[in-house]
Amino acid sequence: MNAQVDRPIGMFDSGFGGLTVARAVIDLLPSEDLIYIGDTARYPYGPKPASEVRSYAIELATSLVRDFNAKLIVVACNTAASVALSELQSLLSVPVIGVVEPGARALVEATTNNRVAVIGTVGTISSGAYESAVANAARDVSREVSLTATACPGFVEFVERNETSGRAVTELAEKLLAPIRNADVDTLLLGCTHYPYLSEVIGRVMGSGVRLINSADATASVVRDVLAENNISRSVGSGAQSSSRHSGLHEFYSSGDVQQFAEFGRRFLGPELSVAKQWPK
Ligand code: DGL
Q1: Which residue of 37, 42, 79 sits with most ligand 1 atoms within 8 Å of its CB, as the best mutation to test the pocket?
Q2: 152 catalytic per annotation
Q3: Residue range 236-256, pLDDT digits in tens
């Protein structure tokens, strides 16, 4: 029995968005325990100043390590990862993984015409994190990729209200995505973990010639690799190949209304989210 191996993965987002990443991690690494915190009392992070988001990220990540004994942290929020990842990595004693680099690599891998786009919150897009991450990912595979980056203020609020279809969100998508429709891209990265819940609307507005990708699966693969590199993985193999008998325990916390978090969150994540508890504990 290795005590460090048995510790949970800690993950946080401003609300429900990171559940897209939680779903991918649970599916890929079913024997890992997971603690998820949705900071719904202070969402949305997107319009807030970087310094404020950074202090929330430090508070949440520190709590995951201190109060829950997390062995690895996943910043399942593009806005927080864009402004706080390197600070968290130097502050904490455990590996910290963000969603921006994995998403950027998946985007560069997916394009065939080398014209790509990313959409995210105002905080994410104005940080310039995707410009650097896509440039790095393209350089690593010796390609030149042109990126159109656009903020989509308002999308997160629709998701947090569980209003993921209908006229109002479609009209907003038509307005916000117009610059990307004009940019002749073949691939669009959903650079906010809330946006996969709007895939149907975004896909319809963009049309069938544009492939939508999100960072959840790519991030889960990085989690698997980093656990293995640090010898703190519970799984031998992964997913269906896992030879571990332990079935992962998943706990969900919210800084806001826990009943609503459990109810909406279950619709987004699935049956693993049966109850939500209050954070801070
Ligand atoms: N899911 C967060 C992200 O990926 C959310 C943003 C927000 O709270 O505005 O950026």
Answers
A1: 79
A2: no
A3: 544 444 445 689 999 999 999
